[in-house]
Structure formats: C-alpha cells, structure tokens
Amino acid sequence: MSSxxxxxxxxxxxxxxxxxxxxxxxxxxxxLVLVPLTTLFLxxxxxEKEIWEHIxxxxxSRLLINSVLMVTGVALCTGILGVSLAWLTGVCEFxxxxxxxxxxxxxxxxxxxxxxxVWMGLLDFPGPLQSALRQLFGTEFRLPExxxxxxxxxxxxxxxxxxxYLLAKNGFATQGARAMEAAKTLGCSQTQALFRVALPMAxxxxxxxVLLVVMxxxxxxxxxxxxxxxxxxxxxxxxxxxxxxxxxxxxxxTVLILLVFLIMELDKRSRKKRRFYQxxxxxxxxxxxxxxMHLQCVASTCCTLILLLAFGLPLSQLLxxxxxxxxxxxxxxxxxxxxxxxxxxxxxxxIIVFLAFVLAYTSRRHPVGITQWFIHIATLGYGLPGTVLxxxxxxxxxGLDNLLISLQDKVLGSSTxxxxxxxxxxxxxxxxxxxxxxxxxxxxxxxxxxxxxxxAARLMGMRGPKILMKIHLPIIKGGALTALTMVFVDVMKEMxxxxxxxxxxxxxLAVKIFELTSEGEWERAAIPALFLVVTGLLPIIxxxxxxxx
Amino acid sequence: xxxxxxVALSIRNLSMSYGEQTVINNLSLRLKQGEIxxxxxxxxxxxxxxxxxxxxxxxxxxxxxxxxxxLVSSDDFLLPPAKRSIAMVFQDYALFPHLSVEDNVAxxxxxxxxxxxxxxxxxxxxxxxxxxxxxxxxHELSGGQQQRVALARALAVExxxxxxxxxxxxxxxxxxxxxxxxVRKILEQAGTTTLFVTHNQQxxxxxxxxxxxxxxxxxCQWDAPYTLYHEPSDPFVADFIGEGxxxxxxxxGDGIVETGLGPFPIPETYGTFVQGEKVSMLIRPExxxxxxxxxxxxxxxxxxFRGAGIMYELELHQGGIVQALVPSSCDHLPGEKIGIxxxxxxVVIFRQPLESTF
Lengths: 549, 358
Hints:
By secondary structure, chain A is mostly helical.
C-alpha cells in the first residue's frame, strides 16, 4: 500500500473528480449500506395492496403500541437500574464494591434471547417455581402470565442495563471532584448536589446508554419471539416467511428504519454534548462517599440481587438443564453447529476488520470534507436491525441473481442460481451491521499513529510498506484484535440475519436455539446457549483486563 | 482598601497531614474585613491545602478556623462546606457545563425569591461586565470570560469569605496582568474578604493587600508586597521574591556592614550585631548601576538580553556575584570588565553567613 506518496498527475483535458483509491473503496463500502436502504424504500413503488391493508388493519396499531410500550418500559427501567448501579459502584464505597464494579457487566455475555428463554422456563406454568408454589398453595394457584409486556420489559432490562451502567459510570468518572465541591461551597448538601449537578452533568452519557438500549430493544428479534410479543421485527419475519411477501416485509422495515434514524440523531446530539461536559484536564478523583451502615447493606444486597437475577441464576439453570440432558442430546451435530457458527463468525470478522482498515486509512488520508460523510454512511449499519438488513440485502441480491440467470440462459443455454442461498448474502448483511463496531476499534488505534510519527519515519528513510509493517501494524495491533473479538462474538450471537438468509440446512447455534425455543424445548436449547455464553464472556474479560491495566 | 477592625478570617495553629506527610505545620493568620490576602509559594508548599481546609474539603489534624468570628473548624468540630458561608473560585473554574451563564450565577441563590434572584444575577453580571452573555453556555466562553462567570457565581451568594485557587493559572500570560487588576477592582467594589493562592508573584503583587510566602507548610513572612520585597525576613523569602543575589560581609564599627561592594549603614530596625560577625547581604539588580568611570570594576560572567535592558551577572573583584540590570545600549561581552556603582535603597542583611544560606 503506497499510503505515503501522493501521486501527482498531469492534468488532462477532461477534469474528472479526482478520487484516490481510498476514496473509491470507501464509496464502494458506502454502497453496501445505501443499496439495501434504497431497495427498502423503493418497495413502496410496488405496493401489495391486499397484504398491506391487512397489515394496517390487523397489525399496525398493535405493533406500534407494543413497540412504544416496550421501548419506553425498557428505557425507563434500564435507565433507573443502570444509573443507580453506576452511582453506587462508581462514586460510593460499600463492601464488595470492587467486585460488583466489573461483575455487573457479566450479563452482557448473555444474549437477550437466552435470558428470555431461561426466565421463561423458570416462570412458565410447568416451570419449577410455579410447580413448587402449586404444591404449597394448591393446584388453583397461578402467577401472572409471564408471556406479557411486563415479562418482556423485565427480561430486556436485565439483559441490557449494562449499557447504561457502563456509560453512566464513565459519565460520573469524567466529572472529577471540582463540580461537586463547587456545588457544596454554594450551599448544596450531598443529595442536592447529586440531583442538581452530578446527574445533569452525567446526562449526555446516561442518554447515550439509554438510546443504545432503545436501539437494541427495537432490533431484538429472538427474545420477543420467545415471548410471542409482536413487534416490527417479528412482523417483518412473518410477512416474509408467513405471507411470503417480500415487499410487505420491506415496507414494514422502512418504519423501523425511520425510528432507528431518529434515535441515531438523538444519540449524535448527546455525543456532541459529552465533549463540552467533560472536565477539561485530568482532575483529582473525588474521594468515595462512605455510605452509612444500613445503606451499605442495601447497596450490597441490591448489587447481589441484580447479579443473581441477570447472570447467576440463569447461568446455573442453563448448566442444570445441560447436565440433565447431556447424555441423550449431545452429539456430533453440536460440533457441526459450533463449526458453522465459529467459521461464519471468523470469516465475517476478518472481512469486517479488513474493511475497517480501509475506512480508517481513508479517514486518515482525508480527514475533512465529503470523505468523512462517506465514512459516516458506511458505518450507519450498526443501527439497522438484523431483520431489516436481511430483507434489504436479500432483495437486491435476488434481483442480481435473476439477471445472472437470464444472462447464463442466453450465453450457455442453461442456468443455475449463483448468489441466492449462499453464505455470501449472510456475510454481506453481517458486514453492514457490524462494520461500525470494527471501524471504531481500528480507528481509535489508528489515531495513535499521529502524522508526525509518519514524518519522523520518512526522515529516517523508511518507505511506505516498511512504515506499514514496522510502525503502523504494531501500534494498531491492539485495536485490530479488539475489533476481531468483538465482531466474532457479535456474529456468533446474531440471530435474525442468519435465520432469514442462511443457505438451506445451514444451521448455527443461534438458529438452533430459535428452533428449539419456538417449540418450548428450553432444556434442549441450554447446550447451544452455553456455547454462546462462554463466547460472550471473551470480550468482557478482554475489556476488564484492559481497564485494569 | 476598605478595612475595619473586624476579623473576617482567623486561623490559629492549623496543622494537617496526609498520613505521615505533614502538609500544614502549625500555621496561623488573620484577615481583616475586606482585606485581600494571598498565600504565595511553589507547588507542594501546602498553600492549596490551607485553602481546602478553610473550605472544609480537608479535615485538619489540629487547630482552629473562624470565619467572621464564627468557629467553623476545631479539633472536635467540623462545619460542612455548605454551611461555612464561603465561596470558592476553582483553578479550572468548575462551571456547571449544563447550565447557562445566568443559571450558573443563580445556582447558589435558591432560598431567594425569583425576582430578587434575577436582580442579583443581573447585578453580578454587570459587575464582571458579562451582561451580554447571560444565555451563553460555559463552553462558548473564552477562558477569561469563564473566570469572570466563576467570580460572579461566587460573589452572588455574598460570602463572608471568598477563596480563589490559582485564579489566573489557566489563562494566557498576556491576559493575567490585565485580569488581576480587573479582579481587584471587582473585589474592592464588592468589599469581599478574599484569600487566594498562587505561585506567581506578579499576580500576588497585583491583587493582594497582604501576602504570605509559604514553604513546607509554614508561612515564612506575612506582609504587604512592598515590605516583602524590600524587607524580606529571611534568605528564602529574599530569594523567592524578586531577583537578586546574596554577597558575604562582616560587621564593622559604628553600625556598618563591610562587603565587596563597600560599606553600608545597617538600618536601625535590626538589633545589635557583634563587631566582626559574619553576615550576608541582599543585592537586587536595581541596586547596581553601570558607570564607566567608576573605580569599582566587575567581570561580566553572563549576559541576558531583556529588550529594554540587559541583565548582567557580574563577578566582584573581592569575590561574590551580583546582578545588574543595565540599559541595553551598554552592551558588554562575557569576560569584559565594567565599572559599577552600588546604590542600595534598602539594606537587607541576614545573620546567616553566605555559606549556610544556599
């Protein structure tokens, strides 16, 4: 890669817009995002009137109400839970604080749909809790139905609160001690200072965390299908695989896209504010608030309880199920599933990190202007739910395939489908969805290679490829490794894209879990779920070791 | 200077330590109503700790603090910061980023009526000349403007004592002098008793009525700027404040000190000396004049060009080094000999002989 020498061209007669190889590659990556989006919105050109009317009459209001209630509930609950836990572990002092500080992140290892089916198995009518209660209070005893809005909110809160927790803790940490001290000299008590200064100052971070949660819950497919709770993602799935109407699925997707873009815009604003809210220089850390004895007990108990409900109990239940069923269930097909999942994830991770490098280099060579917009567009995919992307990628690929088939017909006289039903569609969809995660990790590594480092190397007589190998790669290695791990784990856990675009018979762990849980076979789903939980622990351990050092 | 006999701040025998390390060592000071005091010293001398102890952010190991004749801190009693009727301007200003300028200034005025709050905020912003920026947010302001907002926010609560921690250190050097004069005007106008800390003596001179030079947790000298400069009480203060060198001397007869620059009369404020006693004497650069015809010759060791003048470091014939600030038209190279004439306005001598001072 001749990243160092800017080619000087003689001016020709025609003045084409001059684009470097970097810019061209980035524009191509942009197309990966733009083509599906355009396809989805163009679907309104061919409305399938009957199905669309059916959707409007029977589903639309329920979908909207369900989504709004679910998102509001989850946002409120994760907000309160995440901020309280962040305040306790980030600012106060109580027994076990150090342990909880990282342990409260563990639920991140558990995919939402895994948590959902474990809790479903625990609280269902035939489940252990209700059975025990029936034995105690007689056969008429019933718990409120867990397949409900409250159940969805409870599960998603337990699965997603770590996002708010992590960001809010960051927010409190960047405040430093001065602002609170200033509030106290101006007559505020500790509690008043918390509500008038610390919380408002942490708000951009809290909002960022809550918006992330909102985006995740809107995109969720696995958990809501376990609850039989209809949202846009399940409706898109049903439109495609129930009514066999791709255009209805596409049209439903556009509603979801608009919601997501709204959330992304709000998130952008909160990010902007964070810059101004950060204390300007390294500050002395505030001494931790030593809670009174009874509050210390409350704090420790609360943290323990949340950790148990979100991680300890579900994990034990999974292990219990797995051990119970291991003999009869476990076999070589699980190794196939594991190999499928892992190889898909590995291939996707390598592709994505490579593209992330291309984007990061482009961003470095063209730090201002329209190229930055291209990069922004190329990384928009992280907000697009898997179901939406599956539809958005499948339609144009199918179209391209048909074109290729007719070409083959003309030239060869016979034809086979080249693209549909291959892993290529899946990989493209993964790329769009997870490119942002990879780019962020690689780019933050790239920022450590300042232009003056390049200049110093060139003054010492180093050339392009050598600079890349000897200087850039060693510096970016950490960021690239983070990117690889994160993308790998994300793809392993991914459910809707895999479910909707996989080649026939190509099952993965996530797809297996979907199939088993849709028949209520919680015990049998435990083994593939455990594989995923263990994989999910990798980046958390990675992250914790990094933050400790 | 509005001063009356009321004592606004009184610190008696204050000590504080972090673990083994003593940060404040049996320190006492008083500020009169409306007086502007300053603690001046290198970083790590304990000056900021004194400020934070007065504010109530650190607890002293012993000693008493009274603000406006109300006890706020003693061996067995600590009033929380919020109840001390003080206000503080922090080094980084600690403006609340989520509040506009006027809301920042109004922050401490909660128990007041809305109309009065608005009135007070307007008055404060007029005082610091920021009337036009009421709706702005801190990140939209320059460093100097932020500092004035911090000052307005602190003064709005009408504190009995204002504390300022390195108030100008975050500003451009060119702004500092201008602002310190302005801040002094504002504080005089408000009549607020103030204690601030700095490591920059120019700021201290520009802003303070009284300065305490601090070293290792104690105040070496607590005096007006003029006295500090011209009558430093010990070699450390002499070295820390202003420029100059010590030369050795001995006591002659009739209240005279004999030095390499000749004899000088000893001021009466000094006690009696034994004849022949070895002492050291402070020579400021402005005490030495360059005179070509003078019989007193000195060798140029080093020259530093300073624009209007040249600072020479000169070796005296009888040994000893002094500095001289000479108009820059008189340019001499190192190694040359030049004629000098001493004219010492304030004779400062220390009982420590030269060898034991530095």
